[in-house]
Design a protein that fits this description.
two-stranded antiparallel sheet; alpha/beta; globular; 8 helices
Amino acid sequence: MEFIKAYWEQQGSAHQSSHLASWGDRYAIELEIETISRFIKGGDRVLDIGCANGFSTFRQHEINRAARYTGVDYANSMIEHPQRSLLEKRLPPDEIRFEVASILALPFSDAAFDVAYTTRVLINLPTWEDQQRAILESLRVVRPSGTLVISEGFWEPLCLLNSLRLLFRLEPLVEHDFNRYLKKAKLEAWLRELNMAFEVEEFSSFIISEVASCVSSFRRRSGLGAIIRTQLTSFSTRLSSNTPEAGRACNKRM
Protein backbone atom coordinates (compact mmCIF):
# COMPACT_ATOMS: atom_id res chain seq x y z
CA MET A 1 0.00 0.00 0.00
CA GLU A 2 2.84 2.41 0.76
CA PHE A 3 4.30 2.33 -2.76
CA ILE A 4 0.79 2.87 -4.18
CA LYS A 5 0.27 5.92 -1.95
CA ALA A 6 3.73 7.21 -2.86
CA TYR A 7 2.86 6.99 -6.55
CA TRP A 8 -0.29 9.08 -6.14
CA GLU A 9 1.46 11.59 -3.88
CA GLN A 10 3.97 12.06 -6.70
CA GLN A 11 1.17 12.42 -9.27
CA GLY A 12 -0.50 15.10 -7.17
CA SER A 13 2.72 17.08 -6.80
CA ALA A 14 3.68 16.74 -10.47
CA HIS A 15 0.35 17.57 -12.10
CA GLN A 16 -1.33 19.80 -9.51
CA SER A 17 -4.79 20.78 -10.88
CA SER A 18 -4.47 19.00 -14.26
CA HIS A 19 -6.56 15.95 -15.20
CA LEU A 20 -3.21 14.20 -15.73
CA ALA A 21 -2.96 13.74 -11.97
CA SER A 22 -5.43 10.86 -12.20
CA TRP A 23 -5.31 9.74 -15.86
CA GLY A 24 -4.04 10.85 -19.24
CA ASP A 25 -7.24 10.04 -21.13
CA ARG A 26 -9.16 13.33 -20.92
CA TYR A 27 -11.91 12.09 -23.24
CA ALA A 28 -12.64 9.04 -21.08
CA ILE A 29 -12.62 11.23 -17.96
CA GLU A 30 -15.28 13.44 -19.55
CA LEU A 31 -17.34 10.32 -20.33
CA GLU A 32 -17.10 9.33 -16.67
CA ILE A 33 -18.16 12.81 -15.56
CA GLU A 34 -21.10 12.89 -17.98
CA THR A 35 -22.31 9.43 -16.98
CA ILE A 36 -22.06 10.02 -13.23
CA SER A 37 -23.71 13.45 -13.50
CA ARG A 38 -26.94 11.76 -14.59
CA PHE A 39 -27.30 10.26 -11.10
CA ILE A 40 -26.93 13.62 -9.31
CA LYS A 41 -29.87 15.94 -8.81
CA GLY A 42 -30.39 19.26 -7.10
CA GLY A 43 -30.12 19.12 -3.32
CA ASP A 44 -28.15 15.83 -3.26
CA ARG A 45 -25.30 15.40 -0.81
CA VAL A 46 -22.58 13.92 -3.01
CA LEU A 47 -19.37 12.17 -1.98
CA ASP A 48 -16.52 11.79 -4.51
CA ILE A 49 -14.44 8.96 -3.01
CA GLY A 50 -10.87 9.07 -4.26
CA CYS A 51 -11.34 12.47 -5.87
CA ALA A 52 -7.63 12.92 -6.69
CA ASN A 53 -7.01 16.64 -7.28
CA GLY A 54 -10.73 17.41 -7.50
CA PHE A 55 -10.75 17.82 -11.30
CA SER A 56 -13.93 15.77 -11.74
CA THR A 57 -15.50 17.06 -8.52
CA PHE A 58 -15.28 20.64 -9.74
CA ARG A 59 -16.72 19.57 -13.11
CA GLN A 60 -19.69 17.93 -11.38
CA HIS A 61 -20.19 21.14 -9.40
CA GLU A 62 -20.24 23.13 -12.65
CA ILE A 63 -22.87 20.78 -14.10
CA ASN A 64 -25.15 20.82 -11.05
CA ARG A 65 -24.46 23.61 -8.57
CA ALA A 66 -27.64 22.82 -6.64
CA ALA A 67 -26.01 19.70 -5.16
CA ARG A 68 -23.44 19.74 -2.32
CA TYR A 69 -20.11 18.01 -2.90
CA THR A 70 -17.46 16.47 -0.67
CA GLY A 71 -14.27 15.11 -2.17
CA VAL A 72 -11.88 12.82 -0.31
CA ASP A 73 -8.54 11.31 -1.27
CA TYR A 74 -5.87 9.56 0.78
CA ALA A 75 -2.98 11.40 -0.93
CA ASN A 76 -2.23 14.67 0.84
CA SER A 77 -0.72 16.26 -2.26
CA MET A 78 -3.93 15.63 -4.19
CA ILE A 79 -6.09 17.48 -1.66
CA GLU A 80 -3.79 20.49 -1.37
CA HIS A 81 -4.67 21.71 -4.87
CA PRO A 82 -8.49 21.67 -4.71
CA GLN A 83 -8.36 23.32 -1.29
CA ARG A 84 -6.28 26.11 -2.85
CA SER A 85 -8.67 26.29 -5.79
CA LEU A 86 -11.63 26.73 -3.44
CA LEU A 87 -10.04 29.92 -2.13
CA GLU A 88 -9.24 31.16 -5.64
CA LYS A 89 -12.76 30.42 -6.90
CA ARG A 90 -14.32 31.79 -3.68
CA LEU A 91 -16.68 28.86 -3.45
CA PRO A 92 -18.59 28.46 -0.17
CA PRO A 93 -17.70 25.34 1.87
CA ASP A 94 -21.35 24.30 2.08
CA GLU A 95 -21.31 23.82 -1.74
CA ILE A 96 -18.03 21.94 -2.14
CA ARG A 97 -15.22 20.86 0.19
CA PHE A 98 -12.25 18.50 0.26
CA GLU A 99 -10.41 16.49 2.89
CA VAL A 100 -7.89 13.69 3.27
CA ALA A 101 -9.51 10.30 3.92
CA SER A 102 -9.24 6.64 2.95
CA ILE A 103 -12.03 4.68 1.27
CA LEU A 104 -11.40 1.96 3.87
CA ALA A 105 -12.27 4.29 6.76
CA LEU A 106 -14.51 7.16 5.65
CA PRO A 107 -14.89 9.79 8.41
CA PHE A 108 -18.64 10.18 7.97
CA SER A 109 -21.70 8.92 9.77
CA ASP A 110 -23.98 6.24 8.34
CA ALA A 111 -26.29 7.43 5.55
CA ALA A 112 -24.58 10.83 5.37
CA PHE A 113 -24.87 11.12 1.56
CA ASP A 114 -27.49 10.73 -1.15
CA VAL A 115 -24.95 9.83 -3.83
CA ALA A 116 -21.40 8.50 -3.62
CA TYR A 117 -19.09 7.46 -6.43
CA THR A 118 -15.62 6.10 -7.16
CA THR A 119 -13.65 6.44 -10.38
CA ARG A 120 -10.67 4.10 -10.71
CA VAL A 121 -10.23 3.91 -6.94
CA LEU A 122 -10.95 0.29 -6.00
CA ILE A 123 -8.35 -0.88 -8.51
CA ASN A 124 -5.68 0.77 -6.34
CA LEU A 125 -6.40 -1.59 -3.45
CA PRO A 126 -4.06 -4.61 -3.40
CA THR A 127 -6.55 -7.42 -2.66
CA TRP A 128 -10.12 -8.46 -3.46
CA GLU A 129 -10.82 -8.46 0.30
CA ASP A 130 -9.78 -4.81 0.53
CA GLN A 131 -11.98 -4.00 -2.45
CA GLN A 132 -14.94 -5.68 -0.75
CA ARG A 133 -14.29 -3.71 2.44
CA ALA A 134 -14.16 -0.50 0.42
CA ILE A 135 -17.47 -1.17 -1.32
CA LEU A 136 -19.19 -1.94 1.98
CA GLU A 137 -17.70 1.18 3.56
CA SER A 138 -18.93 3.25 0.62
CA LEU A 139 -22.42 1.77 0.97
CA ARG A 140 -22.41 2.55 4.69
CA VAL A 141 -22.26 6.31 4.12
CA VAL A 142 -25.04 6.30 1.49
CA ARG A 143 -28.60 6.74 2.73
CA PRO A 144 -31.28 4.06 2.17
CA SER A 145 -32.50 4.32 -1.43
CA GLY A 146 -29.44 6.43 -2.26
CA THR A 147 -27.00 5.78 -5.09
CA LEU A 148 -23.49 4.37 -5.21
CA VAL A 149 -21.68 4.62 -8.56
CA ILE A 150 -18.56 2.52 -9.05
CA SER A 151 -16.54 3.30 -12.19
CA GLU A 152 -13.57 0.93 -12.19
CA GLY A 153 -11.25 -1.12 -14.33
CA PHE A 154 -12.56 -4.67 -14.93
CA TRP A 155 -10.62 -7.75 -15.98
CA GLU A 156 -12.97 -9.34 -18.51
CA PRO A 157 -13.25 -6.26 -20.80
CA LEU A 158 -9.45 -6.03 -20.73
CA CYS A 159 -9.22 -9.59 -22.04
CA LEU A 160 -11.77 -8.82 -24.76
CA LEU A 161 -9.83 -5.74 -25.75
CA ASN A 162 -6.61 -7.74 -25.91
CA SER A 163 -8.30 -10.26 -28.20
CA LEU A 164 -9.21 -7.39 -30.51
CA ARG A 165 -5.67 -6.04 -30.38
CA LEU A 166 -4.31 -9.45 -31.42
CA LEU A 167 -6.30 -9.23 -34.66
CA PHE A 168 -4.33 -6.10 -35.50
CA ARG A 169 -1.04 -7.56 -34.28
CA LEU A 170 -0.88 -5.12 -31.38
CA GLU A 171 0.72 -6.11 -28.11
CA PRO A 172 -1.79 -6.62 -25.24
CA LEU A 173 -2.44 -4.34 -22.32
CA VAL A 174 -1.66 -5.34 -18.75
CA GLU A 175 -2.40 -3.84 -15.35
CA HIS A 176 -0.03 -1.32 -13.85
CA ASP A 177 1.92 -2.55 -10.83
CA PHE A 178 -0.29 -0.38 -8.61
CA ASN A 179 -3.59 -1.67 -10.09
CA ARG A 180 -5.71 -4.74 -9.45
CA TYR A 181 -8.68 -4.79 -11.81
CA LEU A 182 -11.94 -6.18 -10.48
CA LYS A 183 -13.35 -9.33 -12.01
CA LYS A 184 -16.88 -8.70 -13.18
CA ALA A 185 -18.03 -12.30 -12.57
CA LYS A 186 -16.63 -12.34 -9.04
CA LEU A 187 -18.20 -8.97 -8.18
CA GLU A 188 -21.58 -10.03 -9.53
CA ALA A 189 -21.51 -13.28 -7.54
CA TRP A 190 -20.61 -11.39 -4.37
CA LEU A 191 -23.37 -8.81 -4.90
CA ARG A 192 -25.87 -11.65 -5.31
CA GLU A 193 -24.67 -13.16 -2.03
CA LEU A 194 -25.45 -9.80 -0.43
CA ASN A 195 -28.93 -9.92 -2.02
CA MET A 196 -28.19 -7.02 -4.35
CA ALA A 197 -29.70 -6.79 -7.80
CA PHE A 198 -27.81 -5.04 -10.62
CA GLU A 199 -27.84 -4.24 -14.32
CA VAL A 200 -25.13 -3.27 -16.80
CA GLU A 201 -25.09 -0.07 -18.84
CA GLU A 202 -22.40 0.14 -21.52
CA PHE A 203 -20.57 2.94 -23.28
CA SER A 204 -17.27 3.14 -25.15
CA SER A 205 -14.33 5.49 -25.46
CA PHE A 206 -12.49 5.57 -28.79
CA ILE A 207 -9.78 8.17 -29.25
CA ILE A 208 -7.50 9.03 -32.19
CA SER A 209 -4.28 6.99 -31.81
CA GLU A 210 -5.77 5.27 -28.80
CA VAL A 211 -7.89 2.13 -28.34
CA ALA A 212 -10.44 1.86 -25.56
CA SER A 213 -12.55 -1.02 -24.36
CA CYS A 214 -16.26 -1.16 -23.76
CA VAL A 215 -17.38 0.46 -20.53
CA SER A 216 -20.28 -0.86 -18.51
CA SER A 217 -22.33 0.31 -15.60
CA PHE A 218 -24.16 -1.78 -13.01
CA ARG A 219 -27.42 -0.45 -11.68
CA ARG A 220 -29.07 -2.45 -8.95
CA ARG A 221 -31.38 -2.14 -6.04
CA SER A 222 -29.51 -3.17 -2.96
CA GLY A 223 -30.68 -5.11 0.07
CA LEU A 224 -28.37 -2.77 1.99
CA GLY A 225 -30.60 0.16 1.15
CA ALA A 226 -28.69 1.69 -1.75
CA ILE A 227 -28.71 1.51 -5.51
CA ILE A 228 -25.39 0.39 -6.96
CA ARG A 229 -24.57 1.86 -10.34
CA THR A 230 -21.21 0.48 -11.35
CA GLN A 231 -19.29 1.37 -14.47
CA LEU A 232 -16.51 -0.52 -16.17
CA THR A 233 -14.03 2.19 -16.90
CA SER A 234 -12.48 2.28 -20.37
CA PHE A 235 -9.06 0.75 -20.82
CA SER A 236 -7.34 3.15 -23.17
CA THR A 237 -3.74 3.19 -24.23
CA ARG A 238 -1.57 4.43 -27.08
CA LEU A 239 -1.19 1.96 -29.90
CA SER A 240 2.53 1.85 -29.26
CA SER A 241 2.13 0.45 -25.73
CA ASN A 242 4.92 -1.97 -24.90
CA THR A 243 3.19 -4.85 -23.13
CA PRO A 244 3.56 -8.66 -22.87
CA GLU A 245 1.70 -11.31 -24.82
CA ALA A 246 -2.12 -11.51 -24.62
CA GLY A 247 -2.34 -15.05 -23.30
CA ARG A 248 -0.26 -14.18 -20.27
CA ALA A 249 -2.16 -10.92 -19.77
CA CYS A 250 -5.54 -12.65 -19.63
CA ASN A 251 -4.44 -15.64 -17.57
CA LYS A 252 -2.29 -13.84 -15.04
CA ARG A 253 -4.88 -13.90 -12.29
CA MET A 254 -7.47 -16.44 -13.46
